Amino acid sequence: MADRILVVEDSRPMRDFVVSALESAGRYEVRAVESGIAALQEVARNPWSAVITDINMPDISGIELIRLVRGQKAHDRVIILAISTDGAATDIERAMSAGADSYLVKPFAAEDLVRSLEEIRSSKP
Question: What domain count does the chain have?
Answer without folding.
Answer: 1
